[in-house]
Write a structure and sequence with these properties.
Layout: H1 3-7, E1 11-14, E2 22-25, H2 27-30, H3 33-49, E3 54-58, H4 61-73, E4 76-80, E5 91-97, E6 100-106, E7 116-124, H5 128-139, E8 143-152, H6 158-164, E9 168-174
Parallel strand pairs: 3-4, 3-7, 7-8, 8-9
Antiparallel strand pairs: 1-2, 5-6
Helix pairs in contact: 3-4
């Protein structure tokens, strides 16, 4: 399936999580076997072209696509977790959200020094989470130059923010607005 066909599988939910927001719901995409497989294949091709040696994905929806791509390419998967989920000493980073802060954590032993890690997530909006993940992975010794997304919301500027931080960014589809 082509990306424009995949885009038709993404459900838009108006006024979620608050009035005026058009939520782009991937549930319908991952529930469509051929669509999910095609999405993973497109992302895998991009990750392979970027020279991925491992794939990192952010909790929670980045786990869906990132782990599937890692399995497809027979690469390791690095889960970028919410606080308190890992049973070992972690590296952590705090980052700004629209209304507050959040934290991401990784197991630093999941990264080999200089390993080329490609970040994969379902959606890029403002870029805060992806930027924090890149910084955290780099702190662990990874070489992080590429971030891949199923969906880009270009009006929110996240992809541009990542490019300014030295990341190459690609998305399979984009939607206007937020």
């Amino acid at each position: 399936m082509k990306p424009e066909e995949l885009k038709a599988l993404v459900r838009t939910v108006p006024d979620f999580p608050k009035p005026g927001i058009l939520f782009r719901d991937i549930t319908t995409l991952i529930g469509h076997g051929a669509g999910f497989a095609a999405t993973v294949e497109h992302l895998a091709n991009l990750a392979q072209a970027a020279g991925a040696e491992a794939i990192a994905g952010m909790e929670a929806r980045g786990f869906i696509f990132g782990a599937a791509v890692a399995a497809r390419l027979e690469l390791g998967f690095v889960p970028v977790r919410k606080p308190g989920k890992l049973p070992v000493p972690v590296l952590a980073i705090d980052y700004a959200l629209e209304y507050g802060t959040d934290t991401l954590e990784i197991d630093p032993t999941a990264i080999h020094e200089g390993q080329r890690v490609v970040i994969i997530d379902d959606l890029i909006a403002t870029g805060g989470t992806a930027l924090a993940a890149a910084q955290l992975l780099r702190r662990a010794g990874a070489q992080v130059d590429h971030a891949l997304f199923v969906i880009d919301l270009p009006d929110l500027g996240g992809a541009d923010r990542l490019r300014e931080a030295g990341l190459s960014v690609a998305a399979l589809m984009d939607f206007p607005g937020h």
